[in-house]
Amino acid sequence: MNVKKLVTIGGCAALGALSVCAAYSKDLTTSGPMSTAAKQDIINTLRNKGSFHKMLQGLEQTYELDNELKGKGPYTVFAADDKAWKKINQADQDTLFGNKKKLDEVMRYGVIKGQALDSDHLYKMQGQQVQSLEGRLINVRMTAGEKEQAFLFLNDSKVKNADIKCSNGIIHIVDAPLMPPLKK
After folding, report:
1. Which helix (H) or strand (E) covers residue 97, if one does?
2. What is the b/e burial string over 6-30, where b = at least 16 CB atoms within 10 angstroms of the residue's CB?
3. In contact, 56 and 81? CB cutoff 8 Å
């Protein structure tokens, strides 16, 4: 599946699922009824998407980032779902989640602050780098071919679902967590 199809099929399906969930859920931050994805912040969008338990666990352990991603933004978040986290063996996950400083680096590395970069913008940035909230650079690249047949990559992580719009930014779902070279 290509980026364009991911945006039109996957993005709409994700937004549709969130709309259905919204009718039956409560917003945990306001105790009121859930709204559509475009009216939810990044954290509540991930919560209601349903398959981001590991990512949310990491964000909750890095309390400041969890609260920041509920704020005004804009942000671009490269979110790894639970299936993507399984690409990292359990012992390494346990070590990472046991070290809040390293976990904070990893969680911040998947966030761009001050910009809501949609797939069209990222496509135009191919071959360039974008600075993460953690401070290090993320390589933006596409596979060869026209945009409609190309896949978007951030370092070695492939975007599986692009352009999930939120009230304070945009989420792109990746097939593996983005990992910075961790400081010692």
Report:
1. helix 90-97
2. bbeebbeebbeebeebbeeeebeee
3. no
Range of the domain at 144: 3-174
pLDDT at 148: 64
Mean pLDDT in runs of 10 for the chain (184 residues)? 36 33 34 54 90 94 89 95 95 94 95 95 92 95 72 94 95 95 65
Amino acid at 75: Y
Q: pTM of the entire structure?
A: 0.77
Q: How many domains does the chain have?
A: 1
Cβ-proximal residues to 95 (8 Å cutoff; 6+ apart), any chain: none
Q: Beta strand 75-80 with 169-174: parallel, antiparallel or unpaired? A: parallel
Q: State how far the alpha carbon of 143 is from the alpha carbons of 10, 90, 149, 150, in Å.
A: 19, 30, 8, 5
Whether 83 is in a domain gets the answer yes
The DSSP code sequence of 127-145 is: TSEEE-TTSSEEEEEE-SS
Q: Which residue has the tokens 């990044």?
A: 42
